[in-house]
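Supplementary Methods, section 5.1.

A reviewer requested that the exact input to the structure prediction be made available. We therefore reproduce it here, unchanged from the version used in the analyses.
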Amino acid sequence: MKTTINEAKKYLNQEVTIGGWLHNKRSSGKIAFLQLRDGTGFMQGVVVKAEVSEETFQLAKDITQESSLYVTGTITEDTRSDLGYEMQVQSIELIDEAHDYPITPKNHGPEFLMDHRHLWLRSKKQHAVMKIRNEIIRATYEFFNENNFTKIDPPILTASAPEGTSELFHTKYFDEDAFLSQSGQLYMEAAAMAHGKVFSFGPTFRAEKSKTRRHLIEFWMIEPEMAFYNHADSLEVQEQYVSHVVQSVLKNCKIELKALDRDTSKLEKVRAPFPRITYDDAVTFLKEQGFDDIEWGDDFGAPHETAIANHYDLPVFIINYPTKIKPFYMQPNPENENTVLCADLIAPEGYGEIIGGSERINDLELMEQRITEHGLDAESYSYYLDLRRYGSVPHSGFGLGLERTVAWISGVEHVRETSPFPRLLNRLYP
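The structure derived from this sequence is encoded token-by-token as follows.
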């Protein structure tokens, strides 16, 4: 019976065959312990010299790291294992013998590991991060489908920019200028006018020359947009969505979180509603905490966001930023004309902003004014202005950065480990 490591528990005390790779091994004279992986998980195979052929035992001792093989044996209970079971190996069939696998069990530097990212993905911790990423994606679709959102795919090549062109990758589109998308938001607003509640999920690009542990050049965004939703409505959706994702990972990725030594007690507290603090109060708080350099009108940096999030020890919304430091499309705050109806959701433990969102301007005249004030080409935004000409309604939306969210939930230090093949300032390989 062929099976996989994650399905092997169904065959307790039965003989099965699993195709996989040798992750690691150790032996103690008359017993060889094989650490096997097959893509679905990691499992121990025990080879007892007295219970197998001499050829099989010799192969178990000689087989090299990352060689591929079929192992056949009986699945038995093992309470010491995270899985709760292991295999008593009876025979081994070598498929392909690996020689001089570069990522040995010793420690390697990050540049070496990134150069070998195509192989580093096989490691137990990197495997765990990708499984958590996959669960976040699965839970995302689950949440928005259950809440009657329609998935719409915006283009990756665009003629205009939601937030200006300074951080965009330029390309030629035949005889026109084009840019790699930094956000699908403007197109999602059009889709919301057709479908009410929509979301997109796709790659976005920022030509930002940053080397911090929070930044990637290419990353994935989940961008919902909702017609007839005001700013307060949107905040409720955001906190419900993030809560759903975190609780789904806690439920379905126990083994992976343990492999990463993640302190899950911090994640267990992540349930809606989340605390809210205005930008004004955040500035006051930061000054009280000794950040004398911050002034009203400044954008917050990583240390400022970390101080605010650590104070709450939960994801926290910072709401109503100054108009001058936010994009052109955000609805003015009726209680303070110098601020807009927006929010950034800051993750705890120093992971920074994971969501940016706002209520959008729905008045045609004001939107035309904002486009002019920001020095944007009105012709490029003609379709966007049409949304305000023909049946404009109040609407709101937000964008969640997948990789930062994966980093926070999995507890890894650098966002580069949350993308299967990250694109960094000085890295386009592999």
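Residues 80 and 312 are 37 Å apart (CA to CA). These observations are discussed further in the main text.
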